[in-house]
Write a structure and sequence with these properties.
Oligomer: heterodimer
Strand order of the largest sheet of chain B: 1-2-5-4-3
Helix content of chain A: 25-40%
Largest interface: A-B, 22 and 20 residues
CATH topology of one domain in chain A: Rossmann fold
Number of helices of chain B: 5
Number of domains of chain B: 1
Shape of chain B: elongated
Radius of gyration of chain A: 21 Å
Number of helices of chain A: 9
Number of strands of chain A: 5
CATH class of chain B: Alpha Beta
CATH superfamily of chain B: NADH:ubiquinone oxidoreductase Nqo5 subunit
Helix content of chain B: 25-40%
Largest sheet of chain A: 5 strands, parallel
Shape of chain A: globular
Strand content of chain B: 15-25%
Distance between the termini of chain A: 52 Å
Largest sheet of chain B: 5 strands, mixed
Distance between the termini of chain B: 74 Å
Order of helices and strands of chain B: HEEHEEEHHH
Strand content of chain A: 5-15%
CATH architecture of chain B: 2-Layer Sandwich
CATH topology of chain B: Beta Polymerase, domain 2
């Protein structure tokens, strides 16, 4: 009797080995694409960056801290404060920083204030497309606790549940000096080896994804894209 | 502008003239006659510019109020036409054939108030609320604070009395 039952259990249909976002083809933007073009999207999980020995890591951190390129993606009104930083008065190029137009070339993501659901989707996508090592600076009180949008139906209250944040800059809105001070703080953290947001994202990937999918109802992108 | 309204009054059922400024008037028209009023204003009376279409939720009267604001470039006057819809089944004729940009306002009103404009292009495509599950958020019976508390999590806050807190920071030995 028991052996018969075992046989029946073994004859279950084979599990679908394809990744989740391919199986769920209804909600995908690339569902109409032919198979060979699905390679445009990658769904591999992120992995924590391997550490080298202490001296080399110190050298790498020094190099990372002195060449921070900002993703110039104006996610909220705080993005206005980035523009004076580029000008001659504040001049972030003397710190080795400059804005870049694409996430592929940037290493610092500046969340400039309130984040609506529609923006969050683009933020997650842009953050994942950035190449490591990558850091996040959240500017303005809206990104920290919702700010004046604390009772809004479409604005999230804390950004660190969806992507890891290394440095917060408070204020509504912070002056360029404050943003500059935030970037200087980020440099200190990187030099001390404490800016580990990227690795945190890889380690707690399921938690971040669950939070993101709880909010973004029309999830039409792969779980991780780069 | 008053002459225009006098002419319109002879043709259509128009009431509640509200003269707000010398160059701004509001009239209330019938829902069924709105397209004819707008067409007459655009083609005969030179109100060629659709400034905006907006809605007000009068929940006590169980009505939606639509306001079509038109501008006349020659006389430099604005004329608003108000229409009242039933709140239970808000359906209104689309004006995208009169002004092409009307469809954007209609798309937004459909998204935010749930007012249906049959035949309006791209009406069901969301502008802001992607994947929204819930009632239209600009209706007054939608509790935005409750929805926000249920959906988005708060950050725990530490409250400090400024005087005591600064004393602790500046003069720790006194406490």
């Amino acid at each position: 009797m028991f052996e018969d039952k075992k046989d029946i259990q073994l004859q279950e249909p084979e599990q679908d080995q394809r990744p989740d976002w391919v199986k769920d083809s209804k909600t995908l933007t690339n569902s109409g694409l032919p198979d060979e073009e699905r390679d445009w999207f990658c769904d591999a999980r992120p992995t924590p960056a391997p550490k080298s020995n202490r001296i080399m890591e110190k050298f790498f951190n020094w190099a990372r801290a002195n060449s921070l390129w900002i993703l110039a993606f104006g996610t909220g009104c705080g993005a206005i404060e980035l523009r004076p930083l580029i000008t001659a008065r504040y001049d972030i190029s003397r710190l080795g920083m400059q804005p870049r137009p694409t996430p592929r070339q940037a290493s610092v993501f500046m969340i400039g204030g309130y984040v609506s659901i529609k923006t969050l989707k683009r933020i997650v996508r842009s953050y994942e497309q950035m190449q490591g090592p990558k850091f996040v600076v959240a500017v303005c009180s809206c990104a920290i606790n919702g700010g004046m949008y604390w009772d809004s139906y479409n604005t999230i209250k804390r950004i660190d549940e969806y992507i890891p944040v290394d440095v917060y800059v408070t204020g509504c809105m912070p002056r360029p000096e404050a943003v500059l001070s935030g970037f200087t703080k980020l440099k200190e953290l990187i030099l001390a080896g404490k800016a580990e947001g990227q690795n945190l994202y890889a380690e707690k990937f399921d938690w971040y994804k669950a939070n993101q999918k709880k909010i973004i109802h029309d999830w039409n992108m792969p779980d991780y894209n780069w | 502008m008053i002459d225009t309204i006098e002419i319109l009054k002879k043709q259509f059922e128009i009431n509640d003239l509200y003269h707000q400024r010398s160059n701004l008037c509001f009239i209330t028209g019938k829902k069924e006659q709105l397209l004819s009023i707008l067409q007459a204003l655009r083609d005969l009376h030179n109100y060629t510019h659709l400034v905006m279409v907006t809605a007000v939720d009068w929940i006590e009267q169980n009505q939606f109020q639509l306001t079509y604001l038109l501008h006349n470039y020659e006389s430099r006057t604005d004329l608003g036409i108000r229409v009242f819809l039933d709140r239970e089944c808000p359906v209104m004729a689309s004006i995208h054939h009169l002004w092409k940009q009307g469809r954007v306002y209609q798309q937004e009103l459909h998204e935010m108030f749930g007012i249906d404009f049959p035949g309006s292009p791209d009406q069901d495509i969301p502008m802001i609320l992607e994947g929204w599950q819930g009632p239209p958020p600009m209706r007054r019976d939608f509790d935005t604070k409750k929805y926000s508390e249920e959906t988005y999590s708060n950050r725990e806050r530490n409250h400090h009395e400024p005087e005591q807190y600064m004393k602790q920071i500046l003069y720790p030995e006194e406490n």
